Amino acid sequence: MKPEIAIIADDLTGAGDSAVQFVRCGWETQLYVGGSKEAFSQPGIHADVVSINSNSRGLTPEAAAQAVASEISTLKAYGVRHLFKKVDSTLRGPFLAEIEAARQHWHDNAVAVVCPAFPATGRTVEAGVLLVNGVPVTETSAGSDPVTPVTQSHIPSLLGCSLISPQESDTAETLAEKIRQGGHTVVVNAVTNQDLKRLARAIVLLGERALPVGAGGLAMAMAAAWAHRMDQEGIVLAVVTSQHSATRRQVRVLQESGGLVMLPSLEVLNNQVLFNDWKSQALENCRQVMRTGRHIVALLAPEGQYPGLSPEMVAWRLAQFALEIVNTFNVKGIIGTGGDGAEQVMKALQATGIRLIDEVSGGVPLGTLIGGDYAGMPIVTKAGGFGTEDILIQAAENLMERKFK
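Predicted structure:
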């Protein structure tokens, strides 16, 4: 296996905290204490991602630039396609020298996209200034670091480059175009994880010439964005049979966010002819969803009762239709909400179990199907009363933005 992605960090802990973001997104990841030559001298690298340490935090700018250039030369020789340059989230070290060396040696027309924001640890980039819990970084302990004191909080001034301030109306596509026009190095503002997700999607659109530069926050977003890009486009299918009020609210939030919710009536479910007609229209609706770029489809069981139509029959009919959808479209994952519905979907797909991998949130497991023709298909199961109002959206994002084996 040849690594497709490499992380170059300036110290070991940085190499580790970025690498773990890729692990969380399902990438086979290996962390090496030394550099790329040491890594590739091992008997065999069985990883999608390698994270290496140039050990350059305390070097002079000239020595740090040389160390980064040497690492990139080795990585390119071994066919690495994407590079993430990990930098200190408080700008310590030979920041400019490492970024410039990485950009110059990565591609002839490389563009360095710099954003050390890490909202989970209080780091944000606002108006080009790196803030730590709302305070400019030079006014924190990083400003008086005994080895590598930080003397500039305004990153574009430090790098001598342009600043991009995304607007709420910006999409990944419009942001990518702004980056293209920004020059060979740009700094991008980011305050939230959603800002970083949009930036990562924009970087993916720029292709292999793009050089993302950041800390754990951008590493997390890039791990998801690159995983999404690796597979062809598809849909996430939720089968919702739970009648719990919490689940119904979750479905409404999903619909408000742009997801397609398909709700057959009890009368339709009780009549095979009517149900066949309804399914034909529903399949066309799924095609429209894929054409418009939306990717989440939910089959929702109707509320109430109908003479001769049991809840078990409702779950069975929806599960059988879910099988038709799986056989018609590229379904990247299933969400089963409600025990009866999740069980019927697994039976329809001839699955005998789930290989558990992680959880979307507490009590909402994520795994892949065991057994049958659909073994390996990702699945999330959720009880009716579990999860926040946006849990279905979170589950869909986990299925779309994770690399599954």
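Summary: Residues 272-291 form the longest helix (20 residues).
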